[in-house]
Design goal:
Elements (H helix, E strand, L loop, with lengths): L6 H33 L3 H29 L1 H20 L4 H29 L2 H33 L2 H5 L1 H15 L14 H19 L4 H23 L8 H5 L1 H17 L2 H12 L4 H8 L1 H19 L2 H19 L8 H27 L7 H30 L10 H27 L6
């Protein structure tokens, strides 16, 4: 099948698809204050604009990864791009906060289909000795989306309004659909003919939704009940998957491969410790530092620009050096970057913030593509879709946990209020508590990264 498709074409298609959702997420972070004013949304509701997308993506990533192994990875990828584009348009047309959040849920389903298949397509096409570099370029595309998101999002929000941030995705989706249909030949479905585990998918989705939704409502009693129900659901899912003949997620992969298990754990911890930083800094820069959306975007670009610059290099390094060494070095740099952010106050100079973001960007570049290379290199070819989706799930669940921590801290310290000048000191206290929590979490992740063992 590798001879039936150009590796270059596959890389262009997948990398462009991988650009989409991070671009959307980072652009929306810049637009949040404008959305909050236009739709009268408080800080907690604003966080749900990001959380709703992440929650639905996490619920559907693993099921769609399995569906892609059965029905074809390119087919699922194409449908994902189409759904993502459709609901980008509808998000831009939303007339209330509730409507916007609902459309973000549906947009997340499309995002799950794109991210649950893209890495699997690349791993199917590229041989092991070239895979790290290809994955590094794909990661660079993700970070290019993160880099352009704040800048383009700031320009669009300031000059055309927040709705244009959603509209700009539509022509990009149409281009991906046209290019994929015309030039990406072949299909990959090593599990064709096997049944789909509908029951396992339902248990997984319900358990994850209950867990994350409940976490966002802590410390209220309802939140505790939902978290307990979610943990029970995840436990039931593991039991079910251990006993069914054709599981949606073969949990034996975690038991049989230490590299697979600990690399996924490292990814979960790393995303949990870093994902909400952009959200907090966007609010900090526009409220506390009184920057325009455009100015805030140019500050926030420092982190993803470093990621885009160094990710291909990190991918090539992981083809030659043990991924755990490169990835663990990256996570150590992340700890330093987050620690620097714990020192933020109302008078912190912008060069200090930019330097902290550059540390984070370099650290994330050194971690991400080597860690992905380790995950995909630790499973058989027939599990590429599931492995890709599992890695994507760690990213999304980590992002949700990160936002959940921020929502919990905001609820405890600030409460459900709009961020106005009298609440700025409380917001700074909440941001400081979140950064301290993330620094401790990321420090613990270094040991999970080191303990994975050798890939080669």
């Amino acid at each position: 099948m590798q001879n039936a498709v150009s590796k270059r074409t596959a890389l262009i298609v997948v990398a462009t698809g991988s650009f989409l959702t991070p671009f959307m997420g980072s652009a929306i972070n810049i637009a949040l204050p404008s959305i909050g004013k236009a739709l009268a949304m408080n800080a907690v509701l604003l966080s749900w604009i990001a959380m709703a997308y992440s929650l639905s993506s996490a619920m559907f990533l693993v099921p769609f990864g399995r569906a892609a192994d059965i029905h074809g990875r390119k087919k699922v990828f194409l449908w994902g791009v189409a759904i993502f584009g459709t609901f980008s348009l509808l998000c831009g047309l939303a007339t209330s906060g509730t409507m916007l959040i609902a459309f973000r849920v549906l947009q997340g389903i499309g995002g799950a289909m794109v991210f649950g298949t893209g890495i699997a397509i690349l791993t199917s096409v590229f041989p092991p000795q070239e895979r790290g570099q290809a994955l590094g370029i794909n990661v660079a595309a993700v970070y290019l989306g993160l880099s352009l998101g704040p800048v383009v999002g700031g320009l669009l929000t300031q000059n055309l309004g927040w709705r244009s941030v959603f509209y700009v995705n539509v022509p990009l989706c149409l281009l991906i659909l046209a290019f994929t249909t015309a030039y990406l030949k072949g299909e990959w479905a090593e599990c064709a003919g096997e049944p789909f585990d509908w029951a396992g998918s339902a248990i997984y989705g319900a358990g994850l939704a209950s867990l994350m939704y409940g976490f966002s409502h802590l410390p209220a009693g309802l939140g505790a009940v939902l978290v307990a129900a979610g943990l029970a659901g995840i436990a039931a899912f593991v039991v079910w998957e251990s006993r069914t003949a054709h599981p949606v997620l073969d949990v034996r992969l975690f038991r049989q491969s230490r590299v697979f298990a600990l690399s996924n754990l490292a990814a979960l911890v790393n995303y949990a410790a870093t994902a909400a930083i952009g959200f907090l800094l966007s609010l900090y820069l526009q409220y506390i530092k009184a920057l325009t959306p455009q100015q805030a975007g140019f500050v926030l670009i420092a982190q993803p620009a470093m990621q885009a610059l160094f990710s291909p290099l990190a991918g090539r390094l992981s083809d030659r050096i043990e991924p755990r060494i490169v990835a663990s070095t990256g996570m150590t740099l992340n700890v330093i970057g987050i620690f620097l952010l714990t020192l933020l106050n109302a008078t912190t100079p912008l060069p200090f913030i930019i330097a902290s973001l550059m540390f984070l960007g370099l650290g994330f570049a050194l971690f991400s593509s080597p860690n992905t290379n380790a995950i995909m290199g630790s499973v058989e070819r027939r599990f590429y879709g599931v492995a890709s989706a599992t890695q994507g799930t760690m990213r999304i669940v980590g992002q949700m946990f990160s936002m959940g921590v921020v929502m919990l801290i905001i609820n405890l310290i600030l409460g459900p209020v709009q961020i106005t000048p009298e609440y700025y000191p409380l917001f700074l206290r909440a941001a400081h508590a979140a950064f301290v929590t993330f620094a401790i979490l990321c420090f613990g992740g270094i040991f999970a990264s080191l303990a994975r063992g050798k890939v080669r």
